[in-house]
Amino acid sequence: MSQEVKVGNMTSASSHDVDRDEIDLVDLIKSIWSQRGLVLGIMLLVVLAVLSFHSYKASFSTANRIDYPISLSFLADSKPSYPNGTSFSPRDLITGRVLQNAISTSGLELTLESLEKSITVAPSNSLLKKSEDKLSVLLADAKTSEEIRLAAEASLKYLKDAGSGYVTVSLNIQELGVNSQQGSFLLQIVVDEWATLSLERGLMNVDIARPLVPFTIIEGSNLIDNYDQASNYLNSLTTAVLQLSELSGSSSIVVNRMSIEDVQRRLTALGDRDIGPLREFAYSNSSSLAESDSAIQVRLFARQRLLDLEHARLTKLISSYDLALVQLGSDNQQQQYSGSSNQNSQGNPGQFDQSFLDSLLQLGTRLGAVDTRKQLFERRITAVEELLLLEKEISILLGTSSSNVMKIDPEVILKGALVTIEKDLNEIQQNIGQFVDAIRELTLSSHAQVYSANSAPQVRGGFMELAPRFALFIVLGSILGLFLGIFVALIRSALINSK
């Protein structure tokens, strides 16, 4: 009987221990819910810690300057001047008149003195300045390898060439006492006012070298002089048309149903068909023309004498070029022979250094001779071209009179054709003037002929660089805080139950 009681007691004790080892999830959830304030508090603390870490890693700064880089459409590297020939300076963008007009247009309560102290201009592109500074630091570092140095030098040269046609207007908004939006708006107005004043003053009017006076036949003058003047007038018109064709937007302008290419073709036809051949015809018949005007013969004799002297000068010049080229060729052959003999005479290693230096000197001499030969050859070609043109003029002066070939009066033909040439030249001169006026109107109607802004004004400072994946950090912080709060709540509940 006593044994049965003991066995029963042991069975009840073991079942009680098993019940105590089981986890009641309902009680667990109730325990966590009862401590929900603790869980939420810990979660908020963790989120605040994440936000504090994020704010620590973020970079804050205060806006202090605004840069406005613009590209000047008319500016060239070798010619820093306005289209009309007036010298250009970056300071032209911030003159007193420009700034005063900008203050009046913007409506901001500013003084001219404060704006002059706060605004600056530099001949560079601020968008490329940071990259240029990094490359300059890399080149200044003595540890930079030669390969990287060469690449950096090439990149720096490319950036400087790309920013050569730019100017950057900068405004210190802290010193001026305006915000970034007002400063950006003010810089844009300053540049627009400068462009407007430049157009009004005629600085953007292209300096076209063109004849302003119509061509007229000089009464009482000989026909040869009239045709010479017509040829010079034609050359002036051709130069003006070439300058117009190089301007931006000129190819799209149409005046009197003619484009600038049509005018150029008409000039070429007039020179090849009328003025050129008839001028040669006039010189060829100079003997018959001189019968009515003795001054023609005196003038032609003096001109022929000058042409003969110039012909002799060019002939001697070409001969001297030929002699110099032959001499350079013989020197190179002697150097090659001496170089080969030196190589054959090398018998011991002690002579290697001297022979190597000699070969380097010979190589430098050969390279210099090549450059000299190239320059001499180019000069000789130029002299030959001048000589050919001179011989053409001489052959025209010594031409055969048409009276010996054709029974016609050259004076009648030349006078009749000269009237038509005068009419054609004056029509083309008026057309060129109309094209110049059309280009000026196009320039006045658009500031794009003056400058172009590839980007909006750049605010330097006044921004916050947020760490990447900011939202992800907040979500992960919340999850971490939730689990940490549940863990603390469970430990606290277990400690309470153990008591």
Describe the protein.
The protein has 499 residues and is mainly α. The protein has 16 helices and seven strands. The protein has helices at residues 2-21, 25-34, 36-57, 96-106, 112-118, 126-140, 146-162, 173-176, 180-200, 223-245, 260-284, 286-290, 294-344, 352-397, 410-445, 470-498; strands spanning 59-60, 65-72, 119-122, 166-171, 451-452, 458-460, 464-465. Strands 2, 3, 4, 5 and 6 form a five-stranded antiparallel sheet that branches. It has a two-stranded antiparallel sheet with strand order 1-7. α10 (223-245) runs antiparallel to α11 and α13 (294-344) packs antiparallel against α14. It is elongated, with a radius of gyration of 45 Å. Keywords: Membrane, Transmembrane, Transmembrane helix. This is Lipopolysaccharide biosynthesis protein. The chain crosses the membrane at residues 38-56, 470-491.
